[in-house]
Structure formats: structure tokens, C-alpha cells
Amino acid sequence: MRKSFTLIVVAGALMALGACATNTEEKAGAGAVAGAVVAGPVGAAVGGAAGAVAGHVQEDASKPHN
After folding, report:
1. Domain range spanning residue 29?
2. pLDDT-based confidence at residue 16 (cuts at 50, 70, 90)
3. Which of 14, 38, 55, 58 has its CA 20 to 30 A from that of 23?
4. For the chain, how far is it from start to end, CA to CA, in angstroms?
């Protein structure tokens, strides 16, 4: 139980760091680290992809649309 709680706290802290990333590369890196902590290599791949998508969405949202 204690190990699970610690894992959840660490994953939450890493995800919080990902939220304050400013560019796509930082978001992908933080997502990969958080995913690796939670689910190992597969989690790292999924977290990196999710971080990259989130970064692209944020960049697109900040561009002016004509």
C-alpha cells in the first residue's frame, strides 16, 4: 500500500511538472518520464506521445486564426 501511494505521489509530481512546460519538447520529455515511472517503457512511449500532442495543441491554440 505504501509503495502504491508513493508511486502515485511521484507520478502526480511529474505530471505537474509537465503542465508547466513551455514547449513541445519539454512536454514530451516530462510525459515520457511520468509514463516511465507509472508503466515502464510502454508508459514512457505513451507519455512522450501524449506530451507531444499536448504541446502541438497548445502551440496551435496560441496562433491567430484568420
Report:
1. 2-62
2. low
3. 38
4. 53
